[in-house]
């Protein structure tokens, strides 16, 4: 039985990846500091002896050195991903996403773990001048989060040159699905529960994104890991089908059963510093391995909106 460590395994994407690894017969250890990850995300596995959950932080090298012992692969999803927080706290991305990744690499080297699978981001492309954006595009950084993820990729790629290690990086667009407790849908529904007549939207609502289901995301990670075995393997994961923030808002409003909602805007093409107005990834590279997304943007937006409503208390539109 293969053994994996999943950092951030109690989080949104991480917990779905743990589901898949257990389904595929892996023994899985999870390391999570539980700041944003939730034990409830994996509560359905509480009787599964193939799963071990350790409360800990990737900034703690001593703990990492223990939990990587005997692993065949580390799936590194633990990260500080709050771009707006980074505007005030300039060290958060450095400490979590760069030094944390360095600690993962050092612990893997010490324990001779051969494979690192890294959750990266489309944010490292910045406001790309080339769309669809391929993996070899180099953009100007627009957020500390994207810059830190790019640094993490760089460190991992360099480690493959002097350590017996292979590296996979998956650059996501916007991933949605059950257990997603942040982002536009979560924010919109909380605002509309508070005031069903008006929805404030950051930016101009014309931001264009690719909304990928967490199932298709995890399928892409596992397929890329299993079918590409170079020393360094970099893949985009997204949908070449764009949805505007306004269109997403309309679906959320419809799912909440609301009528006559007035949308207001903060103005400008960006919701905040680091919010890239267009995210449109080329996914030809991962498709060439056989990956094919199965869930459309409208389907995953609706499914996430319905799950979020239940999570927020089963809101009903006022009669």
Identify low-pLDDT runs: none
- Secondary-structure class: alpha/beta
Number of self-contained structural domains: 2
Global Rg: 19 Å
CA(first)-CA(last) distance:
55 Å
- Spell out the CATH superfamily of the largest domain: NAD(P)-binding Rossmann-like Domain
Which bin fits the share of residues in helices? 25-40%
> Could you say what the CATH architecture of the largest domain is?
3-Layer(aba) Sandwich
Main sheet overview: 7 strands, parallel
Order of helices and strands: EHEEHEHHEHEEHEEEHEEHEHH
Number of extended strands: 13
Strand content: 15-25%
Question: What is the name of the CATH class of the largest domain?
Answer: Alpha Beta
Mean pLDDT comes to 96
- What would the principal axes of the Cα set say about the shape? globular
CATH topology of the largest domain: Rossmann fold
Helix segment tally: 10
Q: Record the strand order, biggest sheet.
A: 3-2-1-4-5-6-11
């Amino acid at each position: 039985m293969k053994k994996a460590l999943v950092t951030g395994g109690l989080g949104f994407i991480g917990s779905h990846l743990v589901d898949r690894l257990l389904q595929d017969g892996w023994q899985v250890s999870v390391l999570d500091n539980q700041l944003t990850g939730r034990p409830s995300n994996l509560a359905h596995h509480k009787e599964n002896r193939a799963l071990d959950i350790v409360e800990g932080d990737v900034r703690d090298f001593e703990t990492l050195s223990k939990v990587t012992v005997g692993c065949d692969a580390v799936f590194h999803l633990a990260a500080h991903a709050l771009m707006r927080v980074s505007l005030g706290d300039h060290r958060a991305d450095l400490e979590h996403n760069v030094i944390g990744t360095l600690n993962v690499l050092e612990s893997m080297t010490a324990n001779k773990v051969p494979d690192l699978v890294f959750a990266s981001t489309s944010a490292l492309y910045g406001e790309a001048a080339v769309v669809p954006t391929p993996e070899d595009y180099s953009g100007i950084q627009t957020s500390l989060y994207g810059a830190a993820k790019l640094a993490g990729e760089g460190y991992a790629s360099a480690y493959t040159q002097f350590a017996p290690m292979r590296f996979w990086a998956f650059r996501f667009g916007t991933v949605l699905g059950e257990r997603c407790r942040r982002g536009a849908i979560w924010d919109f529904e909380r605002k509309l529960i508070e005031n069903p007549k008006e929805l404030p939207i950051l930016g101009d609502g014309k931001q264009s994104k690719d909304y990928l289901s967490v199932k298709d995301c995890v399928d892409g990670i596992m397929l890329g890991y299993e079918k590409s075995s170079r020393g360094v393997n970099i893949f985009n994961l997204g949908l070449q089908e764009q949805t505007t923030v306004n269109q997403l808002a309309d679906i959320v409003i419809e799912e909440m059963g609301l009528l006559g909602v007035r949308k207001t805007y903060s103005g400008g093409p960006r919701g905040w510093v680091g919010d890239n107005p267009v995210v449109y990834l080329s996914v030809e590279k991962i498709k060439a391995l056989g990956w094919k997304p199965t869930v459309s943007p409208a389907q995953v937006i609706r499914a996430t909106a319905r799950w979020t409503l239940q999570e927020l208390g089963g809101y009903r539109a006022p009669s």
